[in-house]
TrEMBL record:
Pathway: Lipid metabolism; Phospholipid metabolism; phosphatidylethanolamine biosynthesis; phosphatidylethanolamine from CDP-diacylglycerol: step 2/2
Keyword Membrane: yes
Record-listed Pyruvic acid (Ser) modification sites: 258
Physiological role: Catalyzes the formation of phosphatidylethanolamine (PtdEtn) from phosphatidylserine (PtdSer).
Gene behind the chain: psd
Family: Belongs to the phosphatidylserine decarboxylase family. PSD-B subfamily. Prokaryotic type II sub-subfamily.
Protein name: Phosphatidylserine decarboxylase proenzyme
Pfam families found in the cross-reference section: PS_Dcarbxylase
Keyword tags: Cell membrane, Decarboxylase, Lipid biosynthesis, Lipid metabolism, Lyase, Membrane, Phospholipid biosynthesis, Phospholipid metabolism, Pyruvate, Zymogen
HAMAP family: PS_decarb_PSD_B_type2
Length: 299
């Protein structure tokens, strides 16, 4: 199996993605017995709880420095020095200095909600044509709400996949007033490309939370956090009904890697040209929170 590739937005170059726990990933998702084991673990809340508990133990601090060095994580961006983290999970949910992620200004500019690997689709209906040959991705299954499906099924969609080494706090992409976050319980399949291949139905089966954002420039926007293997906890830190500026924190994922999905109503957003180009080639674009995602078509 080939290692996943992506486009680095800062350099526009194609890059081979470093795979955390590479041998384990290829065993679990590129062998028959491995796939059987991964599905068993993904359906077991016991495994997730135990794994999450382990990452919160003080002795896991010993992994932090080597993890930082192996993945070239910039410590100058951190609010706290490495010595102050109490566990690996504490480091995993790290906060950054405000200057580490500048937010693109402009009321008509929507920004990246998180660090991650991005795919954009101007029309949800095109998603199957771009990526999912089997067309098993289902918006009704993903949202679990007929009214929301009708509202967004001809709109635009964004995927942001967070790798294990990423900054795992997620933010509001536009000025907005968020509603309540609704939880849809499910399994915890991995969302890494090695695991996913064309099987995007996993997004519809994984644990996820859904929040609708009320905005002036982009209409209503649907914001989903999707859990993944070893990421049982999606923590919301926002207050429903309160006004937020783009770039303000919405919440964070505890240990693991996961995905943010944004859904826009029809004719509300024009994605940036580079994101469209790369997505049409089936290539993710590596982006940072606060960079421009698209422009409002309403202004």
């Amino acid at each position: 199996m080939k290692k996943p590739q992506y486009i680095d937005r800062l350099t526009s170059r194609k890059v081979i993605e470093p795979v955390c726990y590479e041998k384990t990933m290829f065993f679990l998702y590129d062998s028959k017995i491995g796939r059987w084991i991964s599905r068993l673990l993904s359906r077991s809340p016991v495994f997730t709880r135990i794994y999450g508990w382990i990452q919160k133990q003080p002795w896991t601090r010993s992994k932090i420095v080597s993890f930082v060095n192996n993945h070239n994580i910039c410590t100058k961006e951190l609010k706290r020095p490495l010595s102050e983290f109490s566990s690996f999970n504490d480091f995993f949910t790290r906060e950054l200095l405000p200057t580490a992620r500048p937010v693109t200004p402009g009321k008509n500019v929507c920004v990246m909600p998180s660090d991650g690997f991005y795919l954009v689709y101007p029309n949800v209906a095109e998603f199957g044509e771009f990526v999912v040959k089997s067309k098993r991705f289902s918006l009704p299954k993903l949202l679990g709400d007929d009214a929301l499906v009708k509202k967004y099924d001809t709109g635009s969609m964004v995927f942001s996949r967070l790798a294990l080494f990423d900054y795992h706090r997620f933010h509001f992409p536009v000025d907005c007033v968020p509603g309540e976050a609704r939880c849809i319980n499910g399994y915890l399949f991995s969302v890494h490309p090695i695991a996913m291949k064309d099987n995007f139905i996993f997004f519809c089966e994984n644990k996820r939370m859904i929040t609708e954002l009320k905005t002036e420039s982009f209409g209503d926007v649907l914001y989903l956090e999707v859990g993944a293997l070893s990421v049982g906890s999606i923590i919301q830190t926002f207050t429903p009904g309160k006004k937020y500026s783009k770039g303000e924190e919405k919440g964070f994922f505890e240990f693991g890697g996961s995905t943010i999905i944004l859904l826009f109503q029809p004719n509300t957003i024009q994605f940036e040209v580079d994101l469209l180009k790369n997505s049409r080639m089936g290539l993710e674009t590596r982006c940072l929170m606060g960079q421009a995602l698209g422009r409002s078509l309403r202004e």
